[in-house]
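Aim 2, interim progress: modelling of the zinc ion-bound target.
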Amino acid sequence: MDGSAVTTSPTLAGLEPTAFWRQFETLTTIPRPSRNEEPVIEHVRAWAAEHGFELEQDSGRNLVVRVPATAGREAAPTVVLQGHLDMVCERDPASPNDPAEGRIALVRDGEWLKADGTTLGADDGVAIAAMMALVEDGSIPHGPLELLMTVAEEVGLEGANALDGSLVTGATLINLDSEEDGVLTVGCAGSTDTWIRVDAEREACSEGAVTLSVTCAGGLGGHSGSGIHLGHANAIKALGRALREAHAAAPFRLVSLAGGKSRNAIPRDAAAVCSVAADRAAAFRSAVEAANAVIRDAYAKTDPGVSVSVGSADAATDAWTDEATARLLDVVALVPTGPLALSPDFDGLIETSTSLGEAATDGGTLTLHSLSRSSNDSAMPEVIATLAAAARLAGGTLEVKHNYHGWRPDLDSPLLGVAKTVYERLFGEAPTITGVHAGLETAVIATKVPRHLDTLALGLQIEAPHSPDERVSIPTVERFWKLLVGVVDEYSAERS
Ligand SMILES: [Zn+2]
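Predicted structure of the complex, ligand included:
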């Protein structure tokens, strides 16, 4: 590659490919926090103008830069290269550096590059730097390219969700936001939110009843998609289980039930308030203790710290009726949570799951919010039907919000075929091919673009993204670069 007019700081001296590192280093000086990407958008705009590339922006502020084919590759189909402009701007409070102000101090630590006291922004600065370096180097053959640079990926894929799909004309997309060297990602989960709402009758608490709280805590939680196969305790479900067992031994009336902090996470904490007849309080306590022993044993291998305990609570004035309490405990039991199907393509990967993420009480209404995921869109209706049936049996309603389609692995994908061939030729071994059980921008983009997209995600090794420990493995940068250049070249050569 052409390294003539290219310079980098002493920290990056000697690193290849030089053009990539120069672009990356420039990005470390430009603020690009999510939703405030204007400085980096201006940077790309000026760069595109300098090179005579057409640039379009949609109302969601995403950019598409159109790059003509190199000589002889004009007939090849357009390939979309995609990454996100924004980064998570975390810093140690004592650090003088701040990515949100474009102050990232690069530090080399053996084979790793990191930032002094802040996030590095390799997620996803490497994608933007790679796209720019690749197309400004006239010696790399490629067909027509569209560089799709999204905004606000790190805040719920906002940019991709606002994408004007008509800006993208290519039918082949390479996403550059994967954080694992040696892995080609060919699938991810689509997602659907649901809310079961049961509005049930309440009445005044009985004379002389005591109010007790029951809490579940100490589980490890984790991401409800990519961590669902680990089997960690769901605090709302474990609490429901303890309450049902206590209810069988010492009937009580439920005052409230709440738990979970995020639709994306397995709940670690949940609490209920119960109105218990004074002469049944001891039986209630011992029933919860008995349930706690069984729950602790059930999760001994996955959540050794999980426990359910009884405490005192402020006296309640009203609670759900006996009938409503039984019905609400049943609906918590009925809501499925956990893996539902394994991937038929990849060992150990979950294809379909659902996770009860949040429970809330508002007046007489109990709301149970779940997030269901599948890479197989045709599996989702059955999951939703199960949740709808649970709502109906409990006398409640179900609200459904489909977020985006799944990205179902296509092992016969032409793009994957090219990537496998190039990878094996370059590195003398087969790449790992897999999918993820979580949402990726590619799934949202595919939902917005009005044609089938043949899609692949690749990347390099990034550890601890989103934290001041974020670091990128330097040797994997060169592997990533060679693979990307090789795929873009080979794909257009075969089709010119
Ligand atoms: Zn990213």
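Confidence is low (pLDDT under 50) at residues 1-5. The chain has two domains: 10-188+408-494, 191-401.
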